[in-house]
Amino acid sequence: MNVKLHESTGERWFKGFNILFLILVGLVCAFPFYYVVVVSFTTPNEFRQGGLLLFPKSWALLSYEYILSTKAFVKAAGVSGYLAIVGTLASLAVTSTLAYGLSRKRLKGRKLLMMAILFTTLFNPGIIPGYLIVKNLGMINHLSSLIIPVLTSGWYVLLMKGFFDSVPASLEEAARIDGCNDVSVWFRIILPLSLPSLAAFGLFYAVGYWNTFFNAVLFINDHEKWPLQILLQNLLIDSSTSMGVNTVETGLQEIPSETKKMAAVVISTLPILLVYPFLQKHFAKGAMVGSVKE
Asked: Is Transcription regulation among this UniProt entry's keywords (predicted)?
């Protein structure tokens, strides 16, 4: 029997106020990015007129043509793409295998290793010790210095371990009865079940690698190996930078530096915005749904 509850007038007013408030908060949060997009598509003449641009009278791709035609930007985007792909895959491999090992009670020294990982989430060695380790390992000015020091996160390992703890031991026991060894159990049973969690953590890792900035400032001296965020920083600091391109030859020398900056920000943000909708559903999806039947 379905019982329909009627909302009081006060409850309806409260719900309406909450909806209106959340809409206003959403608009406030979205407006800066909207303004960046609008300015990036604005023609030079309209931008020079000044004022707040809410919608351009005419749309132009001059800033994007300039940004995408520069060798430095293409190289930096390639470096960031390499870090996001290779770094994310390596981090997921290390994090998932370590978390799975810790979730198995038969692992010797499991509690001691857990305490060591927990210690890393509470205490940070600092910038100077980290730099000295990277230097002594010979990774200065090498892209590995942007991956290996942040290869995994103690917090992510503990979260993923909690997921593996929820995997019924009967699944692993059944696989072993069928003749599977540890590697087969991992690839044929555990890995397929953990795809939703891997997708969620993979997005976190990918965003971190794509937005690599501070470590690149510390460890990368060669501008040919700069990731995208370092190039954008230099573009923002030096608004007259040509990013390695002769503006006279391109015929785009009249483009305001502000519209070029906005176009660079949009291009650097776009990949993550395109990837997120495909992975967002995995955040709420239960990894064990349908895996075990009574």
From this structure: no
